[in-house]
Design goal:
Elements (H helix, E strand, L loop, with lengths): L6 E3 H4 L5 H10 L4 E3 L12
Parallel strand pairs: 1-2
């Protein structure tokens, strides 16, 4: 049987939760893989 890896994208709920909250929610469901989006990572960009 093949293994299925489940991840959670920050884009999905990033507008209503900060990244720490996204990870806490994911942990409840055994999710260990996260996709980062600019909305989840505070900062000023590359400049």
């Amino acid at each position: 049987m093949k293994k299925l890896t489940i991840g959670l994208t920050g884009q999905t709920i990033g507008e209503i939760m900060d990244f720490a909250s996204v990870v806490r929610t994911g942990k409840k469901y055994g999710i260990k893989n996260y996709e980062l989006w600019p909305i989840n990572v505070p900062g000023e960009g590359l400049g």
